[in-house]
User: Fold this.
Amino acid sequence: MAKAMARHILVKTEAEAAALKKRIAAGEAFDVLARKYSTCPSGKKGGDLGEVRPGQMVRSIDQVIFKKELRTVHGPIKSQFGYHLVQVFYRD
Assistant:
């Protein structure tokens, strides 16, 4: 079964997610921003989701983790929880 290693930042608004994405693009550390701003419990671990398998995450995030380019910050991606920035390290 497929698996991937990813991290994410979850915030309430699209504007917040877009602003954080710009800060990451400007060189700020994803994990530091995740610890400070993410509303997901994974934020305490720098946004680290660990290894995930298809179907473990909501569909919109699953699509990014298993189909989009690696090592790129994707988003903002809307889900019922808010807006996400997602970065995938590897997938098997």
